[in-house]
Amino acid sequence: MTSGITKYLFAGFGGQGVLFIGKVMAQAAMLAKRQVTWIPAYGPEMRGGTANCSVIISNKRIGSPTVGKPDIALVMNEASYQKFIASVVPGGTLYVNSSIVPDLPGRDDIQIFRVPVNDIAHDIGEAKVANIVMLGVIQALTPTLEDEILIKALVELAGKKPELADLNSRAFKAGIEYAQKHF
Is residue 40 within 8 Å of 127, Cβ to Cβ? Predict the structure, then answer.
């Protein structure tokens, strides 16, 4: 994070929820009265194609909404790892879904956290919340916003599905707990 601006990149394949966690970050930033951009990008396939989004959270006006070099990146699959590892700024952080991304060569000038989020989500009882588990890990290790604001955004984005809000809150907390125990 430089001068009150944090640039994020969330990437994976369609169906892994990378666009959704970008929305959660953007919603939480708005709730915190911060400046924010959210830009999704996805392939033509509905599920299984590539998907990524960039989010910028800032204390001041954002000059450009594009994120060429993220401070914090999340990759949920191997193709995204290969595509985006080089783009993380020196001194930045890369979060990797180690449940499906093998231990590949990294970089010495960034922090890399390998987290078995699919396995953790499976232990919670719902594989589809792996993205929210990773959001909890990111929050524990490189927070930009308050935990309560992220949870509020998760609840708001669950809409009229209280069971989804509860599941997302549990997954988020599981990610925080995992990070506190293992890193």
Answer: no
Look at residue 109 and give its three-state secondary structure.
coil
Q: Tokens in use for 182?
A: 């293992």
- Tokens found for residue 103: 């231990």
Q: Are 9 and 84 in contact (CB under 8 A)?
A: yes
| DSSP state string for 143-161 | -SS-HHHHHHHHHHHTTT-
Q: Angle CA(27)–CA(124)–CA(42) in degrees, nearest 5?
A: 45
Q: How far is CA 105 from CA 15, 102, 112, 137, 141, in A?
A: 26, 9, 11, 22, 22
Q: What is the pLDDT of residues 44-80, one digit of tens each?
A: 655 567 799 999 999 999 999 999 999 999 999 999 9
What is the distance in angstroms between the CA of the first residue and the CA of the last residue of the chain? 20
Q: Are 94 and 111 in contact (CB under 8 A)?
A: yes
**How far is it, in rounded angstroms, from Cα 38 to Cα 20?**
11
Phi then psi for residue 147, to 5 deg, are -55, -45
Instruction: Judge whether 42 and 49 are in contact, CB under 8 Å.
Output: yes
Instruction: Supply the pTM of this predicted model.
Output: 0.94
Q: How many CB atoms lie within 10 A of CB 173?
A: 18
